Each structure stands twice: as C-alpha cells, then as structure tokens.
UniProtKB/TrEMBL annotation:
<feature type="binding site">
    <location>
        <position position="134"/>
    </location>
    <ligand>
        <name>substrate</name>
    </ligand>
</feature>
<dbReference type="InterPro" id="IPR022790">
    <property type="entry name" value="GH26_dom"/>
</dbReference>
<feature type="site" description="Plays an important role in maintaining the position of the catalytic nucleophile">
    <location>
        <position position="196"/>
    </location>
</feature>
<dbReference type="GO" id="GO:0006080">
    <property type="term" value="P:substituted mannan metabolic process"/>
</dbReference>
<keyword id="KW-0378">Hydrolase</keyword>
<feature type="signal peptide">
    <location>
        <begin position="1"/>
        <end position="30"/>
    </location>
</feature>
<keyword id="KW-0119">Carbohydrate metabolism</keyword>
<dbReference type="GO" id="GO:0005576">
    <property type="term" value="C:extracellular region"/>
</dbReference>
<keyword id="KW-0964">Secreted</keyword>
<feature type="active site" description="Nucleophile">
    <location>
        <position position="303"/>
    </location>
</feature>
<dbReference type="InterPro" id="IPR016714">
    <property type="entry name" value="MANB/E"/>
</dbReference>
<dbReference type="GO" id="GO:0016985">
    <property type="term" value="F:mannan endo-1,4-beta-mannosidase activity"/>
</dbReference>
<protein>
    <recommendedName>
        <fullName>Mannan endo-1,4-beta-mannosidase</fullName>
        <ecNumber>3.2.1.78</ecNumber>
    </recommendedName>
</protein>
<dbReference type="InterPro" id="IPR017853">
    <property type="entry name" value="GH"/>
</dbReference>
<keyword id="KW-0326">Glycosidase</keyword>
<feature type="active site" description="Proton donor">
    <location>
        <position position="197"/>
    </location>
</feature>
<feature type="binding site">
    <location>
        <position position="202"/>
    </location>
    <ligand>
        <name>substrate</name>
    </ligand>
</feature>
Length: 378
C-alpha cells in the first residue's frame, strides 16, 4: 500500500478531522449529571443527551415560537419557523415576567394558561423548554426589570420584608413549574436562566448596580430556595452573560460549579455598528468553549439575532460561521413580536430562502432531529 502523504489529504478533510477531534475532546470533558443530585431521571437524561447532541449539531431555538408571529397571534399549531422550514424549532424560549405580580399574562402578553399548554406540547414533541425571568424589582414591586436602582440586592438581603416578598415570588414560580407535567405526571425538565445579561447594566441586577458578591449571593439564594425549599428537581440552571471581553470577565460573577449546568451568553447583531459581529461573537464562543471544557459544562448561545433580518444571507453567512464546529448545544433567536420587531423569518421575508438552507444543514437540528434523538430517554 502506498504511503499516504499529507498533500494527498484535502484541506476540507483535514478540517473535518480536526473538528471531530475537538468534539470528542469536548464530550470527554462535559458534565454528565445535573448539579442537583436529586434531579429527575428525565432531567438527567436531557443533560446527558444534550451533551451527546452537541458533538454532532447545534439545536436551533426561537423565543415564544408557538404563541405568536408576524401578523398573527394564538393560532393553534402555527409557527413562523414552521411556516418557512416545514418544522418547528428544537428549543423554545419562554419568559416568567409578571408572574411575581399575579398577572394572568406574562411580560409579552401570553396568558400563563396558554403558555403552560405550549410547554407541554413542546415536551410531547421531544423539544426543549427554556425560561428566562424579566422580574420586577423586589424593593419596588411596581418597577420593572429596566427600572434600575443601585444596590437593590444589598438592600434586599438587609430588609427581611423585602426578602420575604422576593421569596414569595419564588413560591409563585414553584407553583407554576409544578403544573408543567408530562403525560405520566412527571415534571417536565426545564432550562431556567435567571438574571441574564448581567455584564450589561440595563437590568437592576446588572453589573453597574451590584457587586459580584451581591450578584452571586442572589443567584445562590434563588437556586437553593427553588431546589431545597420548594423541592424542584427538574431544572437545569443556565448562567448567561451579555458581551464579555475575556475568560476572567465572563467568570467575574459566576456563582460556582454547583449552581450552574449550562454556560452561555446573549449577543445581538447590531448592523448600525461596525460589522465585526462574526469575529467578535466567534471569539466569545471559543472562550466559552474553553470555560465549558474546564468546568465540565455544556455551552450555548442563549439569545441572539438580527432585528428585521435585512441581510438576505444572514443565516448561512453570518450565523453559520459563528456556530459551526463550535460544540454549542443550542442557539436561540429572539421573538417575532410584530412586523418591526422579529428575529426569525416568515414566508416571503428577505432571509426566508437562506433560512431554509440553514435548516437543511446536517449540523443544525430543528424539531424533527431533536425528536428523533429522544432527548428525555436514557
């Protein structure tokens, strides 16, 4: 047999071999069990199977996908993503905002009763549900997440009445989460992503309004309360920054390996700024990969997107280079709120054809491949 020299192996194959070796290394270092030692079997299986899936593909997600889209709302079974690609996303984002105020609707107007059914529908189809929480300020309950007040967290732990109020909000989350059950009564596994984008300062828990120690204290209190006091064992906890400049910057407010299952970050493409989005985001992805491997966590882009999608090839020429061969468990784009605020295409939209090409990539999974992976089974 003739010796095979390096020159006879195509550059494409060399890259493919390097990619496979990288993913195998990622899998070897990944966390295999949730940080909650009492996690339900389905929750354990989800984390394990997400780790396996990340070695093959990135799951695609969309916020509020089933609830509304561009020029429609509350149409059973409808989805802008499905209208374009023929299938649902693999990951579905939801929000808990306003549950603390006993509102019948969450922050973007979805009735919690309907959201509950959407979550159950996603689970029944084999998809993944992830929750953020744009909560009001526990010191000033009428003020929203964006009504910034310095030292809120410090004052919260110094004021027993305020802390009791906050804990009562966690009680409401626990009551609601307990209603999210599967066909056998099993708790549906959920990715819970509290206090996100904290490297920015637009929320009251953001970097400019609390110290790292205060942020970590609030995080640990929240997770401990839900897990130990309320007995919720179906949660995978996601730590999610906004932009960051380095590993040290990312980890400044990290609450500890025992309080995090998934590491991620949010990043939006702002076309009015110099177009360094791909390079900057890929740099952050590589830093996140290093952190994930060192801490044995899976990693994800927990929010992203380009508002109104004016770039026709955004999916294949902008997002794909960011996520390709990166070992990401999932990437989620934001919601389709109205004709001037949307992040996934709808039929006829400028980027719809490119989105269809993106959905056909073997290394990107939408709903059908996620269902085939049986993520909740051992």
């Amino acid at each position: 047999m003739a010796e095979i020299g390096r020159s006879s192996i195509s550059e494409h194959n060399m890259k493919k071999i390097a990619w496979i070796l990288t993913l195998l290394a990622s899998a070897a270092f990944a966390q295999t069990s949730p940080v909650d030692p009492a996690a339900t079997p389905e929750t354990r299986n989800l984390l394990r199977n997400l780790r396996k899936a990340a070695a093959k593909a990135t799951l695609f997600g969309h916020q509020d996908d089933l609830a509304y889209g561009v020029d429609w709302r509350d149409v059973p079974g409808r989805s802008d993503v499905r209208d374009v690609t023929g299938e649902y996303p693999a990951v579905f984002g939801w929000d808990l905002g306003r549950i603390e105020a006993d509102s019948p609707n969450e922050i973007d107007g979805i009735p919690f009763e309907k959201q509950r059914q959407y979550v159950k529908d996603v689970y029944a189809r084999g998809g993944i549900n992830t929750f953020s929480w744009h909560l009001n300020n526990p010191l000033f309950p009428e003020k929203t997440s964006w009504d910034k007040a310095d030292s809120t967290i410090r004052h919260l732990f110094a004021d027993p009445a305020a802390l009791q109020r906050y804990d009562s909000w966690l009680d409401k989350i626990a009551v609601y989460f307990r209603t999210l059950t599967g066909p056998k009564g099993e708790p549906i596994p959920l990715i819970f992503r509290p206090f996100h984008e904290h490297t920015g300062s637009w929320f009251w828990w953001g970097r400019g309004h609390c110290t790292p120690e205060e942020y970590i204290r609030l995080w640990r209190h929240t997770v401990d309360y839900l897990r130990k006091e309320k007995g919720l064992h179906n949660l995978l906890i996601a730590y999610s920054t906004d932009r960051f400049t380095s590993k040290e910057d990312y980890l400044e407010r990290y609450p500890g390996d025992d309080y995090v299952d998934i590491v991620g970050f949010d990043i939006y493409h702002r076309p009015k700024t110099p177009d360094t989005f791909v390079a900057d985001t890929r740099r952050m992805v590589e830093t996140l990969r290093t952190i994930g491997q060192e801490k044995k966590k899976i990693w994800a882009i927990t929010e992203t997107g380009l508002e109104k999608l004016p770039v026709a090839n955004w999916w294949t020429e902008v997002l794909t280079p960011v996520i390709q061969d990166a070992g990401l468990a999932y990437v989620l784009v934001w919601r389709n709120g109205n004709p001037t605020h949307f992040y996934a295409p709808y039929p006829g939209q400028t980027s719809a054809e490119d989105f269809r090409r993106f959905a056909q990539r073997p290394d990107v999974w939408f709903g059908k491949k996620a269902a085939a992976a049986r993520l909740y089974n051992r």
